[in-house]
Amino acid sequence: MCLAVPGKVLGIEDRDGTRMATVDFGGVVKEVCLEYLPDLQVGEYAIVHVGFALQRLDEDSARKTLELFETLGLLQEEFGDPWEPAEPDANGRTEQPADAGDGAAAQEAKR
Amino acid sequence: MKYIEEFQDPALARKLLDDIRATVTRPWALMEVCGGQTHTIIRHGIDQLLPDEVELIHGPGCPVCVTPLEVIDKALEIASRPEVIFCSFGDMLRVPGTGRDLFQVRGQGGDVRVVYSPLDALRVAQENPDREVVFFGIGFETTAPPNAMTVYQARRLGIPNFSLLVSHVRVPPAIEAIMRSPSCRVQGFLAAGHVCSVMGTSEYPELAERFRVPIVVTGFEPLDILEGVRRTVQQLERGEHTVENAYPRAVQPEGNPAAQAMLADVFEVTDRAWRGIGVIPASGWRLSSRYREYDAEHRFSVTGIDTREPAECRSGEVLQGLLKPHECEAFGTTCTPRTPLGATMVSSEGACAAYYLYRRLDLEQKTVSREGASVV
Question: What burial class does residue B374 get, using C-beta atoms within 10 Å of its C-beta: 0-12 exposed, 13-18 middle, 19+ buried?
Answer without folding.
Answer: exposed
